Amino acid sequence: MSGFASDLTHATYESPDIVALYARPDGLQKPEETLLAQLRPSLGSMDMLDIGVGGGRTTRHFARLAHSYLGVDYSAAMIARCKAEFPAFRFAVADARRLELVADESCDFVLFSYNGIDHLDARGRRTALAEMRRVLRPGGLMVFSSHNANYLPAIVDRFRFRVHASLRETLRSFKWSGVFWAKNGLLQYRMPLAAGRVHDGTHSFRSSALYYVRPDVGVAELHRLGMVDIVCAGNESREFVPGDDPRLAHDPNPWIYYVSRKPERA
């Protein structure tokens, strides 16, 4: 993701059909349900920042319980939809890499859900994570989800050309297989991939490539950032496991939730 106002992904998230898609009243994902249950007793005293809020999917569940709530997204159309839908709460247009509107150590809980961070390249990702850490108070909670590089073989298989009984479906397979490999020509030589960007067909290839990372590599990224108490869960699991669990390196889930804390002051 390059320019704030003109890149392909930004244009996609400003389009009415995508705004309507993300404004649907979908429920929480399974790891989010676990997180909400764990935080419910203390959310009333927590100042929450919800990054990449989209159409307000997480707003519906977290905002009314938090002491204060700010939802941000780099799509002005998404934020306009949230303001209309949830007038009681605060929303603002902001880039996750530049959270100037949020003061240092002013949040207890920062959430970046639905793999929003994956629209950034490696450098942008590091910048966004550093910004999330900056705005957290000591002891504050950072939560985000990210696409799992272990799932890439399933993505490749999805776009493999297949002959179907129907000519229409055969031509459809030919079309999307061609688009996939035109955008990912060197992918077969990069696998197994520890971390990197892949065009996985999101929004019918109307978005830029997404960042995929193996879970153990994602955990190491958080350790380098100085985060502690790291736990992870696959998107189909309600159970979090410690970040040093050796099974994480081979977790097959499509994406992973990462939860960590900013250390308390010595």
UniProtKB/TrEMBL annotation:
The residue ranges of the Methyltransferase domain are 49-140
What's a single GO MF annotation on this record?
methyltransferase activity
Output one GO BP term: methylation
Please provide the record's keywords in A-Z order: Methyltransferase, Transferase
Lineage: superkingdom: Bacteria
What name has this protein been given in UniProt? Class I SAM-dependent methyltransferase
